[in-house]
Amino acid sequence: QVQLVESGGGLVQAGGSLRLSCVPSRSIFSINAMGWYRQAPGKQRELAALITNGDNVNYADSVKGRFWISRDNAKNTVYLQMNSLKPEDTAVYYCYVGYGNNPFGYWGQGTQVTVSS
Description:
The protein is mainly β. The protein is 0% helix and 55% strand. It has no helices and eleven strands. Strands 2, 4, 5, 6, 9, 10 and 11 form a seven-stranded mixed β-sheet that branches. Strands 1-3-8-7 form a four-stranded antiparallel β-sheet, with no helix packed on it. Strand 7 and strand 8 form a beta hairpin. The mean pLDDT is 95.
């Protein structure tokens, strides 16, 4: 069973930056997407940023220009650089890896990001 190991969450003041990292516990074949979703208290889980094969990138409108997703294909690692953080960015951030024809993919356990005003 593959586990996605997330790191980099924490508490930061508004305007600050954090960098999230996600690495699988073992190699995953036929990866077609890597990214980050987030879930704020009382809200549904939503896409923050996703990068697919060919380096096509999708960002939530609310994070465009502030967040930057990147991946290291050799390490199967995905990163999320979050700048100019706002209190409304406070959420649990979940790493996601899609592979092959699997409709569910792999999910991390989540890492808390808290932005204080």
